Known about the structure:
Elements: H1 28-46, E1 52-59, E2 67-76, E3 79-86, H2 96-110, E4 115-121, H3 126-131, E5 135-142, E6 147-155
Parallel strand pairs: 3-4
Antiparallel strand pairs: 1-2, 2-3, 4-6, 5-6
Amino acid sequence: MTAPDTAVTVSRQPDPQTDFVLTDAPNPEDVAAISDALDRFNIEHTEIADRRPLAVLVFRDPETHQVVGGLTGRTSLGLFFLDLFYLPTRLRGSGLGTEILRQAEDEARARGCRTAVLYTITFQAPGFYQKNGWKRLGEVPCDPPGTSRVFMTKELTASTGEPVRSR
């Protein structure tokens, strides 16, 4: 008589010496360690080491020379990720936002990016991005009820329709 097949499930537990910390205030060095490790992993698998921050900053306070707004993001593996974009109310509607966005997109093209991605919230600026050639990928509901995160993309192509190659 043969023994019946039995399924054995082995559950791997974390090393008992592993500590976990849940925090809403991570140390910048710890965030950098995770980011750098992921970057090394990506480079090992793609052989492309092109991750770079990208920012267009607005200095408008003549006394403090402090940044009052602008755009931050990053480029990596042919994509421009627009992370944050803010202008104070007094600077909106003047074309400054469109110029900041254009400068960031131009720099991303110069770095070899073919596509840009971002998310905004329905009460923020999806209309602004649409006016500047961005298209909606989808929406995910969030709070408050009736609000969504809107995920958007834009093809970063030259006037010929071909992607711009990095310099």
